UniProtKB/TrEMBL annotation:
This protein's UniProt keywords: ATP-binding, Kinase, Membrane, Nucleotide-binding, Phosphoprotein, Transferase, Transmembrane, Transmembrane helix, Two-component regulatory system
Native organism: Salibaculum griseiflavum
InterPro entries, per database record: HATPase_C_sf, HATPase_dom, His_kinase_dom, HisK_dim/P_dom, HisK_dim/P_sf, Sig_transdc_His_kin-like_C
UniProt name for this protein: histidine kinase
Enzyme class: transferase
The EC number(s) this enzyme carries: 2.7.13.3
SMART domains to which the protein is assigned, alphabetical: HATPase_c, HisKA
Lineage start: Bacteria, Pseudomonadati, Pseudomonadota, Alphaproteobacteria, Rhodobacterales
One Pfam family, short name: HisKA
GO molecular function, a single term: ATP binding
């Protein structure tokens, strides 16, 4: 019970209501004491008026009047004359005098609390105004024991009533909280448990329907989260299936390419100048395809293999990339250019760097070709004290908005309509494996520019 939201709310409600009733109890008891004094003053005035009406009242009747008024003495001031109207022996000296003609609220509360805490029977004097202008002043002498007992009895009835009100109020609030708050929360929890059992099932995604604004916001947020998570899980499942299929295809494709590699050895012996010029490039392309297939077979590790670093001439890699893309461009009006310092060497994995540049240039070529407009692609390189820099720029239409929002994330939209974004994701991962980074410098309707940073420091390399 104490560990439930409704149970704790019930207890807190009871406590707060009791505190509120206690704050009401104190002034109520003070008011009761004031009314008690005023009632005794009125009784004493009535008794004194009876005496004034018949001056020959007997001593027994006078004592009966004082007993009914619950006082010892009555003093009435009329016509500026102070008269002892009724009197009887006082058992003890007067302990205190209380003026009830115009008391301050805090004085009434203070005196009431003092009276409740004082257990001794005191003799007190009370002064007040006679009712109905029956004189200028009336004062009585009385004992405090009956007053205190009456205050305690009244206070207990107030506390009992407070307890009943607290219990009824807490019970109503308990039921209201269970219906308005706890029940909807439990429904959300049940949905979360049901969703956790089958997160791939889109039918288990919560349907927001609460009329409480805060709960509705929580349901909306949960629905969005579940929808995104379900989509992510389905995508991961598709990627896992794709990985298995690609591995099988790559295994067989590697065997086919290995056979083709053997045939290219015979092509190199051809006397045709064109064949002799193109044969090395064909051999290199087939070798790269075989290497890529072997790398794909390691797909289960969910990461690219560590780069095999060596010193290589950057211009050779760039030339191979551009030659391949020129052939792919065919008759389209796309020009390719390179601005590489003569003899510039970088420390990198040649095959992986070829894939990085190939992905970037291929994306640029496809984006320009989709516009049916002429365009230019340029690869520029330079170095400073800390790193080698390679910039790939184009005059294409720029990256789509979805590609900008999910840059370097696979299957979240590529650089062209219908693209998967896998090329940029692979390029970024390969560059990170070199300890470097792939950056998007700018993209708009005038073109796109990527920058590859390859650090020179050995400590920057991530070869784990």
């Amino acid at each position: 019970m104490l560990n439930t939201l409704s149970g704790r709310f019930l207890i807190l409600t009871t406590i707060f209501v009791m505190l509120a009733e206690i704050l009401i109890f104190v002034p109520s008891v003070a008011r009761f004491r004031e009314d008690y004094f005023l009632a005794r003053l009125e009784r004493a005035q009535i008794a004194s008026l009876a005496l004034l009406a018949d001056d020959m009242i007997t001593e027994e009747l006078e004592q009966e009047l004082l007993t009914n008024a619950e006082v010892f003495n009555v003093v009435l001031r009329r016509d500026e004359v102070r008269q002892l109207a009724l009197s009887s022996p006082i058992p003890a000296p007067i302990h205190a005098t209380y003026d009830m003609r115009d008391p301050a609220p805090w004085v009434l509360i203070r005196d009431a609390m003092v009276r409740l805490s004082d257990t001794e029977n005191r003799i007190i004097r009370v002064i007040g105004n006679p009712v109905r202008d029956g004189g200028l002043l009336i004062e009585i002498t009385m004992e405090t024991a009956p007053l205190r007992m009456a205050m305690i009895d009244y206070g207990l009835r107030i506390l009992l009533l407070s307890a009943v009100i607290s219990i009824v109020t807490a019970a109503l609030l308990f039921l209201a909280v269970r219906v308005v708050l706890v029940k909807p929360i439990k429904a959300v929890v049940r949905n979360m448990q049901r969703y956790a059992a089958a997160p791939e099932d889109a039918r288990s995604v919560i349907t927001p329907g609460s009329s409480v604004i805060e709960l509705r916001e929580a349901e909306d947020a949960l629905a969005t989260l579940q929808t995104q998570l379900t989509g992510a899980l389905k995508q991961k499942e598709r990627l896992a299936q794709l990985g298995g299929g690609v591995s099988k295809i790559s295994h067989d494709l590697r065997n086919i390419l290995t056979s083709a590699q053997l045939f290219t050895d015979r092509i190199e012996t051809s006397e045709d100048p064109t064949v002799r010029r193109l044969a090395p490039k064909l051999v290199n392309s087939i070798s790269r395809a075989v290497n890529l297939c072997e790398t794909t077979l390691a797909f289960g590790r969910v990461e690219e293999p560590a780069p095999r670093l060596s010193r290589l001439v950057l211009a050779d890699v760039v030339e191979d990339v551009l030659d391949g893309e020129r052939l792919a461009a065919g008759e389209s009006d796309i020009s390719f250019s390179a601005d590489i310092p003569v003899g510039m060497q970088v420390r990198a994995d040649g095959e992986q760097l070829y894939r990085v540049l190939g992905n970037l240039v291929r994306n640029a070529r496809q984006a320009i070709a989709a516009t049916n407009q002429p365009g230019e692609i340029n690869i520029r390189a330079f170095e400073d004290e800390d790193a080698w820099w390679i910039h790939v720029t184009d005059t294409g239409p720029g990256l789509p908005q979805k590609a900008r929002e999910h840059l370097f994330e696979a299957f979240h939209g590529g650089a062209r309509r219908g693209g998967s974004g896998l090329g940029l994701a692979i390029a970024a991962e390969l560059v990170r494996g070199h300890g470097g980074r792939l950056e998007l410098r700018h993209t708009d309707e005038t073109g796109t520019a990527f920058a590859i940073c390859l650090p020179k420091a050995d400590a920057a390399l991530d070869t784990d």
